[in-house]
């Protein structure tokens, strides 16, 4: 059997449990070495389900020579520190988005991890979904022609728990960041962001200064226009879909169904709708970890790394500033040897 990347998973909440199942059985190049959570009950439960070791001590995992890599799915505020500690211990790092709640910490993390030479991938799973990846590959090959319009919808069925929202970095940094990464990946760099936001479902969301509904307009460097719509509480289901219109073709990725049957009655037919990101992306979450493991084992750079995480974070902060100040925020994408960095007028700490 070929070598597998022995991966410890840290953080076993909504996202971590999906990664745990994938590492345990759906990634040929990876194996789940152990699971870690601050809560011993959570760690024991997942470990018993999957038949692996568990611990509450991250330090023990980093000192364990039988662990090659860590996958981090803890709350966002801990990502930067856990990533740097792992890289300094010689472990390859897969880290959920966003990299940090603080821009300088994100920059410092990218540089500290890069200095160690380990593989570093960030959790923008859409890039590994077969439908999105096929569409992007055909666009990048020029089959769509010149892009005119880009649209994405990302809508949760029900909002996450209040404790999650409080530490999430806010609507744009936590949620819109996926669409902003997709926009850069599919269409190119962005030079203008204009956002509108509202709280329409739960006043508790307004009390913590956050949003549940937003629309973000984009102007791309290549002249194309984009629109992103996001909701925390779509009610009917979870939606993640897109359309990109070009001069030679238009590509649409619709929301798939979870079940492959349709119920028909006179004059009416009904289909199921997916309820959450786990049902929406049965392949992407496994494939992103498989791709990470292959890169770590082969010493090749992951397809989506720290610089991409920072670029999407900067765009999300620009959207946040636009919403707060009621104005368009202009950005300058600067090409560096390591990727694209955005120069914005967003003050640090926002
Ligand atoms: N890529 C995606 O589609 C996607 C979807 C959901 C969440 N996320 C990201 O995943 C991360 C986790 O989100 P979630 O919804 O799973 O959160 P969650 O609150 O459901 O789970 C977090 C888990 O981490 C544990 N934890 C907290 N601090 C820890 C520490 N220092 N060490 C070990 N364990 C610790 C908690 O006990 C909990 O079990 C967030 O950064 C979020 O942005 C990504």
Major sheet, described briefly?
A: 7 strands, mixed
CATH class of the largest domain: Alpha Beta
Structural class of the helix and strand makeup? alpha/beta
Tally of DSSP β-strands? 17
Arithmetic mean pLDDT = 96
Rounded to the nearest angstrom, the radius of gyration is 20 Å
- Element string (H = helix, E = strand): EHEHEHEHEHEHEHHEHEEEEEEHHHEEE
Ligand species: nicotinamide-adenine-dinucleotide
Per DSSP, the total helix count is: 12
Q: What low-confidence regions span 5 or more consecutive residues with pLDDT below 50? A: none
How many domains, as an integer?
2
Corresponding CATH superfamily of the largest domain: Dihydrodipicolinate Reductase, domain 2
- What is the oligomeric state here? single chain
Describe it:
Helix content is 37%, strand content 26%. The protein is an alpha/beta fold and 350 residues long. It has two domains: 141 residues, Rossmann fold, CATH 3.40.50; 193 residues, Dihydrodipicolinate Reductase, domain 2. The strands form four sheets. The protein has a seven-stranded mixed β-sheet. Helix 4 runs parallel beside helix 5, helix 5 runs antiparallel to helix 12 and helix 8 packs across helix 12. The longest helix is centred in the last third of the chain and has 20 residues. It starts with a strand and ends in a 7-residue tail after the last strand. The mean pLDDT is 96. The site of nicotinamide-adenine-dinucleotide has 25 residues, from helix 1.
